[in-house]
Amino acid sequence: MNPLPEDHEAKLERAIHQTLRALPVRRAPRTLEARVFSELERRAALPWWRQSFAHWPLAARAIFLLGSVAWVKLVLMASVWVMAGFDSTAFAAAFSTPVAWIETTISLARGVADFCSIVFRSIPPLWLYGAAAFVAALYAALFGLGAAAYRTLYVSR
Q: How far apart are CA 122 and CA 128, in angstroms?
């Protein structure tokens, strides 16, 4: 009878694993450690603006992103102005629609915020305290169930 493919694969995996474990550990070149540490020190000594974007201070990243967005907006506006033949009325018409859309969105957000404020103020404070206590109880139950599950599944091993 032929062994199942899963058994054969598991035996092959174990044999390869044992063979690779039996191989001697290869040593790195003697100069590698010194080269790696010198490169790490060189990169750490670089000023922040020469490092990758993720290593920049948060304020510098925010200013860079805002400046980039402003630059893109300026280039788009200039290209529309040039394509309109340097006509200021066409330029104003091209950018009045996005501004009107933004103003509509802001007025809608203000209306929703006002509605939510009115609804929130009409809820009795006792209900809010009860809801906060209910959420705290659910959180405590979740924490307790997680701790019990952890003890059951992992600590007993």
A: 11
Cα three-residue angle 5-10-12, rounded to 5 degrees: 95
Distance CA 21, CA 27 (A): 15
Asked whether 94 and 84 are in contact (CB, 8 A), the reply is yes
Q: Per-residue pLDDT tens for 53-86? A: 888 999 999 999 999 998 998 888 888 778 777 6
The CA distance from 42 to 83, in Å, is 49
- The residue extents of the domains of the chain are 123-157
Measure CA of the first residue to CA of the last residue in the chain; give whole Å.
Answer: 37
The whole-model pTM stands at 0.38
- What is the token pair recorded at 90? 């066409």
Buried-state track 26-51, b at ≥16 Cβ within 10 A, e below 16: eeeeeeeeeeeeeeeeeeeeeeeeee
Of 40, 43, 73, nearest to 55 by C-alpha is 43
- What pLDDT shows up at residue 99? 67
Q: 81: buried, middle or exposed (CB in 10 Å: 19+, 13-18, 0-12)? A: middle
Residue 105 has pLDDT above 80, yes or no: yes
